[in-house]
Design brief:
The two termini are 21 Å apart. The relative contact order is 0.24. It is built from five helices and four strands. It is globular. It has a four-stranded antiparallel β-sheet with strand order 2-1-4-3. A hairpin with a 4-residue loop joins β3 and β4. α3 packs antiparallel against α5. It has 157 residues and is α+β, with helices and mostly antiparallel strands.
Length: 157
């Protein structure tokens, strides 16, 4: 088991576009609304290559390996990366609550515990509006939420 880290910074309005954050479901039924067909086509085209965080954290594993910002064998190292990212971005956090060093330390310790049992971690915070930060750690090989997903480092991207 190992852990991959992902960082995304972008406009919150883009983050809120659920269609590009979900893998395309089954094909729309014949004769359905053209808007539904268009959203389905958009999801088919964009989800696999979009760097926008997926709604299901484990689905990062189907994205290109180039989105990975780091890989760690142990939960402590992965959580330390998360802490470093939070500290780096903290001056830009929109909320004093998010900048609190005790909160960052708690988030780090919580992440380490969650990763230790094979869970995933996703942390989000507003930066200077309209920007939003999403930091994610995904457990890989296997992922508990989606054990069928292969490691992105072991397949062609």
């Amino acid at each position: 088991m190992h852990h991959h880290g992902y960082t995304w910074v972008g406009e919150k309005s883009r983050f809120d576009q659920e269609g590009i954050r979900r893998p395309a479901p089954v094909d729309p039924v014949p004769g359905c609304d053209p808007d539904v067909v268009q959203r389905h086509r958009q999801a088919l085209a964009e989800f696999p290559v979009s760097d926008v965080p997926p709604i299901e954290t484990a689905r990062w594993l189907v994205k290109p390996a180039g989105f990975i910002r780091g890989t760690w064998q142990d939960p402590k190292s992965a959580a330390e990366w998360l802490e470093g990212q939070l500290l780096e971005y903290a001056p830009r956090f929109d909320s004093a609550f998010e900048r609190d060093p005790n909160r960052i330390e708690h988030a780090t310790m919580s992440a380490m515990g969650r990763l230790a049992w094979g869970g995933d971690v996703s942390v989000g915070a507003y930066l200077d509006r309209p920007l939003f930060l999403c930091l994610t750690l995904v457990t890989c090989s296997p992922n508990h939420a989606a054990p069928e997903l292969p490691c992105p480092r072991t397949r062609e991207t």
